[in-house]
Amino acid sequence: MADKDVQLMAHLMRRAGFGVSRETLDELVEKSYNETVDHLLEMIGHPTRLTDNLIRRYHPEYSGMMGNQSAGANWMYRMVSTDAPLREKVGLMWHGIFATGYSKLANGKVLHDQIRMFERHGMGSFENLLIELSKDPAMIVWLDNSENHRGSVNENYGRELLELFSMGVGNYSEHDVKEAARAFTGWTIGNTEYMTLKSARDSVWPYGRLSFHFEYKEDDHDNGEKEFLDHKGNLNGEDIVAIICGQPATAAFLSRHMYSFFVADEPPVPEWPYKPPRDEDAIAALSKVYFESDYNITEMLRFLFKSDFFKSEQARYQRVKSPAELMAGVLRLTEEFDRPKIDMNPTHLQATFMGQWLLNPPSVEGWHWGPEWIDSGALVERVNFASERLGNLDSPGVRTMIDRIATDNPSELTPEGLVEGALDVLSLTDVSEKTQSALIEFAEAQLSEMNRSSDSESKSRQHIANVLRLVGATPEFQRA
Amino acid sequence: MTIAERKPSLVVIQLSGGNDAMNTVVPYTDGIYHDSRKAIHLTDETVIDLNGTLGLNPSMGPMKELWDAGKLAIVNGVGYPRPNRSHFRSMDIWHTAESDHIADSGWLGRTIRELDPDHENVITGINFGRGLPRALHAKGVPVASVGNLETYGLMPDIADQMTRDMAVDVFARMYGPDDTRDAVLQAIGETGMGAYLGADILRSAPANYSSSIEYEADIPIAQALRDISQVLLANLGTRVFYTQHAGYDTHAGELENHAKLWHELSTAVNDFMADLEEHGRGDDAVIMIFSEFGRRIKDNGSGTDHGSGGVTFVIGNPVKGGMYGEYPSLELSEQLEGDMRFNNDFRGIYATVLDQWMGINPQAVLDKNYEQFDMIRR
């Protein structure tokens, strides 16, 4: 992958999506880089992918989201099959920031609905997104806003809205937390008592799960005067969100999240007050776009992808793939799930084994990303998953990759050429010398094995697939 | 690899789904039991009597042998304040030992950190199953997760053994120390070497194992306990073992299903104890068996729905067998929304095992002090 344009395009597609096949990359570089960015953003509005109708037809359990993994498996289908991958990536970003989990809700349907809400509102105005989030039934139950009453305030949502969802610690007072919570009294779910009881009594039986819905209860809302970040008045939830969105702290917080998710891993949020961003200029530039565009997420992303700090070689491979990103990336290349298959159930479970149970983050802080994705148990799962999938000749995408590497005459392959080809199709341009030499040695053994015996064609292709496996097992493949 | 000194080990078995405490340790002399459990009641004649008022499920014969030998401690009425009847939330509470807010590290992860603060042994804690239960998770603490000990390791799907060996060698080379890499890749490299070494160490366990005990074939819990025995007997320095036995969510067909589960589990635990005994290692391990909650006092016509108030077993040669904790009253006025009330906080059992058996200050793991039982011989 020598060509600089190809490398840049591959970088964009790893970040704005889950990576693409080498063939697609060749097509993409025919157009200009900026056009491609615009096209990716444009696609978000009208994605083509496996429809819910189709998924449900083959997997009835996904309709009611009855199993605790159903909503996550459904999402994995969408990540793997969509032609608007940026939409799913942005969904993953919001899911990581506004982390809401099955462990408390015991209801896959409302979590599924929340991710759909991110798809509808996650690319427009951040102010609108925070209002939708405040009305999101899963969020209301997750952070106890259903327990937040006039005269009996529950601060959970008010606090996390400021601390984890918008401004970050150190930018508001305890008094602001209380006043924000008061402003959100009466923002609850319909039929609260029954629904809360229902969520505490999980059941896997049919009809065990009902969708919550938002309800504003005027008579439970505190209409008294409130003081919040230098504003005074009978503030309601919308007012709080509007004030929050006008804060420079919010712009910086959101920009740092976007930078971390799309450009290069920042430390986990709890460390932010103590560690400056990797690139303060980038955060300042993104914050500027935030205000100039009326808090528009699409415009921030457009600016980000076209910026020098994103396109720079310094930003390449500076993100550890989350389990969902790793899996979706591999499965899109192998093309196993071009249609619904029962195998998505066990396949999707592997993200859980790697430490990311989709729709069930460990706490409201979400997952700790970056190097923290990789503990020894998770690494074994990641390596074994990639190895198994990339080594499977039954998958059409694997056969395509091998065809590209081996061209017409496999017997003329050199170990160096084989490794280079395998790195190329798996979108790895830069591996350390140590990795490179180990791979070449392995390729040499596979080639001599292949040439020594008069194996069937499929067996000789397996030797090439084995090199693909090993590239999927490299330390470098863990990053995008 | 030097042979690790023999140190106390803890084996935790999680019964997933909510074990029905009332049909496990049965208050069979209480009329309310029989009135409440019309569809799934166990008769006086079949229950295995323990002390004149309580008896074991008839399927638990092998467990009764451990009771008779004074190795089985039964803690009744176990739970935590404001019981949650969702599997996931309640299991989370047991895993993190934190009932008031959502916590992200597990009590056994914190235990492993206490046992091996410098990460000298990458297999101080092992989960036998896929994916790490939250109980074992703590930031920076390495824990191996072993689906099947025979095939455990890197790239098990490579069928040809020679190719796999070569691939694993190449893996070790790629993950070896390399100071030309940036900090993140170096950290990933270290983790990879930990995984590689852990797998390599564990590979020796089945090879060196022989036993006259025949664990039941094709029964996952029996195979998991056999794997645990193999690792324990190999003296690899593992101190915390974890595994699960699933299927306890007995909303329907409870009599049959529940009996089958407890037959499998009792037999496997009895075999495991005999296996350790045969190798002169019976004094080295304590087993704890728990579930996320108990079930409703009244049955639903074929099974039972989610409830509160559970039962926990602690088993081993070092354990002072017997009944601990009062059995909750079934009187209507004493019930909690149709469930048994808890009268023993589960963290008291954790504290007992940590302090009296593992020799760890329980406050370092549980944050607070909990009342302990006098349960371990010293």
SSE map:
The complex is a heterodimer of chains A (480) and B (378).
Chain A: H1 4-15, H2 22-28, H3 33-43, H4 52-58, H5 61-64, H6 70-81, H7 85-97, H8 102-105, H9 108-121, H10 126-134, H11 137-142, H12 156-163, H13 174-183, E1 187-189, H14 192-200, E2 214-216, E3 226-228, E4 231-233, H15 237-245, H16 248-262, H17 280-292, H18 297-306, H19 308-311, H20 323-334, H21 344-353, H22 376-390, H23 396-406, H24 415-425, H25 433-452, H26 457-472
Antiparallel strand pairs in A: 1-2, 3-4
Chain B: E1 9-16, E2 25-26, H1 31-36, E3 48-49, E4 55-56, H2 61-68, E5 72-79, H3 87-96, H4 107-115, E6 125-128, E7 144-146, H5 161-175, H6 183-207, H7 220-233, E8 240-246, H8 254-278, E9 285-291, E10 310-315, E11 322-324, E12 344-345, H9 346-358, H10 362-366
Parallel strand pairs in B: 1-8, 1-9, 5-11, 5-12, 6-7, 6-8
Antiparallel strand pairs in B: 2-4, 3-4, 5-10, 9-10
Helix pairs in contact in B: 2-8, 5-6, 7-8
Number of strands of chain B: 12
Rg of chain A is 24 Å
CATH class of chain B: Alpha Beta
Order of helices and strands of chain A: HHHHHHHHHHHHHEHEEEHHHHHHHHHHHH
Biggest sheet statistics of chain B: 9 strands, mixed
Please estimate the helix content of chain B.
Answer: 25-40%
Q: Into how many domains do the coordinates of chain B divide? A: 1
Give me the CATH architecture of chain B, please. Answer: 3-Layer(aba) Sandwich
- Please outline the major beta sheet of chain A: 2 strands, antiparallel
